[in-house]
Write a structure and sequence with these properties.
Blueprint (H helix, E strand, L loop, with lengths): L13 E5 L2 E4 L4 E4 L2 H4 L8 H13 L10 H14 L5 E5 L2 H16 L3 E5 L8 H5 L9 H4 L3 E4 L4 H8 L4 E6 L13 H13 L3 E5 L23 E4 L10 E5 L18 H16 L2 H16 L5 E7 L2 E6 L4 H9 L3 E2 L8 E4 L7 H15 L1
Parallel strand pairs: 3-13, 5-6, 5-7, 7-8, 8-9
Antiparallel strand pairs: 1-2, 2-3, 4-10, 9-10, 11-12, 12-14
Helix pairs in contact: 2-9, 3-9, 7-8, 10-12
Protein name: Aspartate aminotransferase family protein
Pfam families: Aminotran_3 (PF00202)
Keywords: Aminotransferase, Pyridoxal phosphate, Transferase
């Protein structure tokens, strides 16, 4: 049997990793400044992470959600404390797409409406309603396109209120910093107006924090820079440091009932231990503070390179925008300089999503490599 060929692959085969470094089968060392799409939050193979997961799998790796699981309660308690969202409720699933699916479904249950508003260049997943709310027609199949979704220009408040006034929108979903779309952000006025308008028109406000959450921006969540209170917050990626886990934080105004949502694997024992350990390490090693500190240093270093026309993002969710397509530069960084970086829908944007444990010396290595390849 062969693999279904949907991924264009670089000819690199990682076999082990440690902190910000990945090693291939020839023991070639690569600096990982992409973290597997912002998944690696506390560094590869963190000793505490390895220890806790190993201990848990030796006792109990999985049982269904039909029994008591104190690890879920422990995770919810830690997450509420560190995120500052203690009043929210937690539903656990397995991925970012699932998180957004459950968020959209819950919104529709809550207010009885079915239309969704999303924004240009947004990305929310590859399944059902999540992909319909994603601004990429190439990955929306006809079965997805039957969902009622309106995609608006980021920042267009007039169009937003006009659509909400029809009173058929169950949810407005937005990334406060766009990931795949290219690190675009709108204004405080826009985000705070969404918050107000959603309350006015009985619409759920969903903050997609799948990529930006768990300290990546320097705040625990990207939305916390603004005066907003989302009804639902979707999380995944950095939540498990590589172990598949996702979830939604649900405002207490939204009430639960048996059978409303459900999952087989979501919130399993290993996933809970993985995410609880991530939270412990983020707090103990002050990784949100590190994200802020290294981000400031990164921005100053980027200003030294004239070919960089714009620096986008916040914390360690960053983009370097050039006035030329970066595909070739990215290949040179991988194969010549042994540095992993990422791309985006914007062809001129080099995306930087390193582990939150990154140090200044790693930033120096990146910019030395870029200078070398551009000279």
């Amino acid at each position: 049997m062969s693999l279904f060929n949907v991924y264009p692959l670089f000819d690199i085969t990682p076999v082990k990793a440690e902190d910000v470094y990945v090693f291939d089968e020839n023991n070639t060392k690569y600096l990982d400044l992409y973290g597997g799409h912002a998944v690696i939050s506390i560094g590869h193979s963190h000793p505490k992470y390895v220890k806790h997961i190993s201990e848990q799998v030796s006792k109990l790796g999985f049982y269904s959600n039909s029994i008591q699981n104190p690890l879920q309660v422990d995770l919810a308690t830690k997450l509420g404390k560190l995120s500052g969202c203690k009043e929210y409720q937690l539903f656990l699933c397995n991925s970012g797409a699932e998180a957004n699916e459950n968020g959209l479904k819950l919104a529709s249950f809550h207010n009885g409406k079915k239309k969704v508003i999303a924004f240009k260049n947004g990305f929310h997943g590859r399944t059902s309603a999540a992909v319909a709310a994603t601004d990429n027609a190439k990955i929306v199949a006809p079965i997805n396109a039957q969902q009622e979704v309106e995609i608006l220009e980021l920042g267009d408040l007039v169009a937003l209120e006009k659509s909400l006034a029809k009173n058929d929108v169950c949810a407005v979903i937005i990334e406060f910093i766009q990931g795949v779309g290219g690190l675009d952000e709108s204004t405080a006025e826009f985000y705070e107006a969404i918050n107000t308008l959603c309350k006015k028109y009985n619409t759920c406000f969903i903050a997609d924090e799948v990529q930006s959450g768990f300290g990546r921006t320097g705040d625990f969540f990207a939305f916390q820079k603004y005066n907003v209170t989302p009804d639902i917050i979707s999380i995944a990626k950095g939540m498990g440091n590589g172990f598949p886990i996702g979830g939604i934080l649900i405002h207490p105004d939204i009430k639960a009932s048996f059978g409303l949502l459900g999952t087989t694997f979501g919130g399993n024992h290993l996933a809970c231990v993985a995410s609880s350990t991530v939270l412990e390490v983020i707090e103990e090693e002050k990784l949100m503070q590190n994200a802020t500190k290294i981000s400031a240093y990164f921005i100053e270093k980027a200003k030294e390179i004239s070919e960089i026309k714009n620096i986008k993002g916040r914390g360690l969710m960053l983009g370097l925008e050039f006035d030329f397509p970066i595909a070739e530069l990215r290949k040179k960084l991988i194969f010549n300089q042994k540095i992993f970086t990422g791309s985006a829908k914007n062809p001129n944007l080099l995306r930087i999503l390193p582990p939150l444990t990154i140090k200044k010396e790693h930033v120096d290595a990146l910019f030395d490599a870029i200078k070398s390849e551009l000279s």
